[in-house]
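Teaching assistant here, posting this on the class forum so everyone can see the example we discussed in section. The complex has three components, and the goal was to see what a joint structure prediction looks like when all of them are supplied at once.
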Amino acid sequence: MTDETPPEDNAVADEKREALLAGLSESLGEDLVESYLRPHEDLWLRVRSESWQDSIRTAKSAGFEYFGFLSAIDWEIAPEGRYEDTEFDGGLEEEDEEPVEIDTSTGYGGGGSRFQLLVQLYSLSQQIGLILKTDVGEDMTIDTIRDIFAGADWHERETHEMFGVFFRGHPTLQPLYLPTEFEGHPLRKDFPLLARQVKPWPGVVDIEEIPEHLEAQLEAEVMAAFEANGGAS
Amino acid sequence: MTATSDREQMAYISSQAADARVNVELDTGDMTLNIGPQHPATHGTLRIACQLDGEQVVVAEPIMGYMHRGYEKLCEVRTYPQCTTLINRIDWLGSFANEVPFILAAERLMEVEAPPRAQWIRTILFELSRVANLALFLGDMGVQIGALTPVFFAFRDRERVLNQIEEVTGGRFHPNFDRIGGLKDDIPKGWIEETHSVMVKMRTFCDEMEDLLVGNEIFQARCRGVGVIPPEVALSYGLSGANLRASGVDWDLRRDANPGLAWDQVDWRVWTHPDGDSFARYWVRLQETREATRIVDQLLDGIPSGPIMAKVPRIIKVPAGEAYLSTENPLGEMGYYIVSKGDLGPFRVKIRTPSFNNISIVPWVMKGVYVPDVITILGSLYFILGDIDR
Amino acid sequence: MTTLLALPYWQETGIKLGLALAIIPTTSLILVYLFLFKMMAFMQSRLGPNDTGPYGTLQLIAEAIKFLQKEDIHPAQADRRVFRMAPVVVLASTFLLYVVLPAGPDAVVQNLDTGVFYAMAVSSISVLGILMAGWSSANKYALLGGLRAAGQLIAYELPLILAVMGVVIQAETLNLQGIVEAQATGEIFGFGGIGNPFILTQFLAFLIFMIAAQAELTQTPFDMPVAETELVGGFHIEYTGFRFLLFFMAEFGTAFAFAALASVMFLGGWWIPGFDVDDNILNVLGPGVMLGKILLIAFFIFWVRFTYPRLREDQLQKFAWKVLIPLALVNIVLTGIFKVVF
């Protein structure tokens, strides 16, 4: 047993996931929109939002009985600056005239909407994980999978309060973390992070390079202190 | 929409529950009792609103969020090394173990592999965190049931493990030691022998706990048959860690989905128990603690030599992509879903914490149990508030 | 019996009452310091109080002063009269218990002929006080604690009394001094050296008495009414300051009293081998002997308290009704048979 997996293992893992992908494509049929397989690591499937419940059911009957998590991604770029090469000027006070581009191109399985829902499931018998994604349309409504996986109950509540996605058929969608009077959906990209509004991003300081002429001097000082303390103890 | 009227209803019930005093006009119906948020049995600020019929629970609804720090939003505005500082504080008892899945997920996206020495030391520190975390549980379960003394022994012996972690990383609870590509520093001289002796002491501690608690008839009477979770329910709720294995499901991420750390290099076994009650969960965690000490012993003897850090650029930009990686943390399965757009920091981090799923089963499992059993079940499910609330 | 001094009745009773009243806080102090502070700490591998006074001996006095200087508050919706009376009722039952405890042949406040009966009856008054406290606090946790206490304390009265019955049958008297005399003058198979301490012949009754006493004192493993990690104090959760001190004193005072009863009924009381029952010297030595025996029994009470987890309510009740009471009845039958046959 060594650290590196021999090539045959790689091929086996590939085969396993490829076979799984083929099987699921067959059972999902036209519900499957796109898929992405990273060999030896993970499998992503994007399904149509109308058949979200059916796709989950198909996955469960294919052996994916362990519920990992359910969450959402907001693909919009945050309007306020984050890094040292972005101008930070309190941009939220002025109305942004240009429409913010929604770049889902880096998401596996593609997608066309601002919000995407994702669910991670495990199959204990095949020891493989599966990530299912779907687009959430303009109406921000999608079916609940609470009847299929009981654990999705709380995850859907959290997604609802953080993103504003409404789950059809979920009996109690009240907030999980936030107090009842809270307004807004925090994990959306246009919900401002107040800390960044008050104080600009301090990260610049961390990765400032030590100037060349100081580097040798600092090194000498550290070594001198080291020797003074008795060297390697 | 029914959601709003339900919300109003829930708000009314919550306001009733907030007033933990008996109504002056005798309400002969069910009584609402608040367990928490300030309560010694909930490890932190968790509130469970129970409706009681006499001493039996009719409905139990956990209400959380008292400690919600918004980690997922905070991680979006930080670089990867800065995120490590944050995520240390999710499961504050399992110090080093929090960082590992995040760093490994980022390494997967960067297609960087840490050198073998770093992977081995990561595994050792991971298992040490497990020993420290579960040692506290072994004593803490006693306190929930009423035995006041074992928890002091647990704290005392846990300090030894924390000392070892501190010697390497500089921090007992928040080491902040893992880096993309390896570790920050190497282990100090003499650490291996010290850790060997600490592991011997921890095994003695486990034997002590077994003598004090496991064999005790009262402990067994309180725990056996209490809070039984069948395996299908456990799978559907996404329980993980010892909770899942105590229901008989043989699933351990260290063995079945090893993300590259050194568990396949040593000889160890996975412990399961068929019962699925609180006693089974305690027993499985006891065996796991022992097993972890044995894993550490084997690993310490075979650390390969070499560099401690791979060649990574000083300013880390993770290429675009998505990755989900989870590991078998002391509390269960902790996973990070990182979406990166090629920036200095992640675009979206979804933190899958074990206690969140573990506690979501509380409304299901608490139907019809007595009030003392509520505490027993909560104790045996073993959650940390930072893990639930992030 | 010879008497130490010849005093008019009222003066004698007054002195005795004064002494008894003074003794109760002192005994609580000794028990609390020795067992709650120091023994519990050592068993949990820590030190306990060691700052106030030499080895922390003045800690309880410091705590008493702390309690006394707290503000007298009560919940807004509490029933004020009942709320205030509850700790007094519990403490009163403790004081009443001390009336019959003998510390020497004459060192007893009142040597009642129905000593045992009186002691058992009076110790049950505390149930009332606990219920009053739980109900009047206007707090759901307190109510739960009070109701649990009511069920538990009433359930465990029975094994307590039945266990004592065995002793009474063997001693042929309810009088506590008479029981001591019976143990002092008794013989084991003809050997009179150490008398006949009933712990040897009534071992089953001793065990049942100790278990039932543990439950009567609401100590773990029977501390459901005060389950710290669940109800955070149970029936006395709303009491602070002086009233809490009253409950505290009552708890340890009653523990002392029960340990005293156990040592009188099973260990021979104030009598030690080598002395006659009527010896006047025993009026001086007796209290010391009693204290030693009481500390021995209290040691076991508190040792079990710090070690065992607690039983759930229904398990508690099952244990009392289905295990302890039948055993106690068996003990009575056996004692009766042996008494008649031998």
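For the discussion questions: Residues 18-28 of chain B have pLDDT under 50 and may be disordered. Strands of chain B lie at 31-35, 47-53, 56-63, 178-179, 182-183, 321-328, 333-340, 348-352. Think about how each of these relates to the inputs above.
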